[in-house]
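Entry 0007
Protein: 2'-5' RNA ligase
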Amino acid sequence: MRRVNPNQLSLFHCEMTPARGASYFIILSPIERVKEVVKSAKEMLGSQIPLSGTNMKAVAHISLMKFTAADDDERIIKQIVSVLSSFPCFDVIVAGNITFKHGEESRSLVLKIDNPGPIQWLHMLLLSAFSPRSSKKITPHITIARSIPTADFEKIDLSAFNYHDSFLCQEITVLKKAPGDRKYKICFVMPLCK
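Output (structure tokens):
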């Protein structure tokens, strides 16, 4: 590794040096009944085909946004509250399963969200706060298992995972993984407007 000469002026301003920040993950957390159904679905799937530990341990959620930023919870929370302060509660309708293909190598088994509009709108508002130049779109879903090798996926009876339900989304959850942490921890839960 090259040593830095303290007597030599840097060509780059100190702020330009990228610093490793915290990873923030904003999600919608379903009600306990849905989490339990997804947990049971993982166990049933794991009895049919090999599943990774990550797949087995992942708790049911709907992803809104993941990003890395300076480790400054107060600023992150302030930005989220600013863009979502008047966002109303809404129903989430779970309508059976769908498959996401990842080339020819693997598939993910997920629960379809039948009314993705409010979730996509939340995502767009968050993008405006944290990544305004991005036009990334999401397909809201609840993952049962991801990146299953195609040969294993073809052995699954998908009708066994045809779950339908609905629940009222009343809050968003902000998870955080600080530098050096191995797992995400709850940083902030923001209630939506009643």
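Curator remark: The chain has one domain: 24-191. Confidence is low (pLDDT under 50) at residues 1-18.
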